[in-house]
Amino acid sequence: MPKYNREIHHRRSIRLQHYDYAQTGVYFITLCTLNRECLFGEILAGEMHLNKLGTIVRDEWLQTPCLRPNIRLGEWVVMPNHFHGIVELNGQSKSRRGVLHTPSSDVYPIIKSPSQTLGAMVRGFKSAVTRRANIPVWQRNYWEHIIRNQDSHHDIATYITNNPAQWETDSLHR
Q: pTM of this prediction?
């Protein structure tokens, strides 16, 4: 087994450097299926028709705020080979789980556990879908965009809503 070499084995992050993905914010995420296979159903007459796996994706997505009280869902859509969603992190959880308190917060800062981050939410969602599907479903990683203003939010929400009708021109359509 070759020894770990940081230069060779390091995976470059596509996240915004030094950004705290546990802080309050609104995010647009896109998750793609493994090899961009159309696993979740099909588009007929501009409408998405979910198959059994697509229904699992929908159900697990709707379960997200029940499992993570710091999450609120915005617009979302399951497409044949990808998923788009708007997620709001409110920065607060009803429980104190996920926050590590050190002996003296004056000396050591409070460290947020990954359990309250956008990445942890996406990992949990992808894991739940994969576990229920009992097959590999997702490609590694995901795309995210920080929604910074109301105009951007409106444009992205409209894009998500109209995505099935635009399937033939979608860059993720094969």
A: 0.79
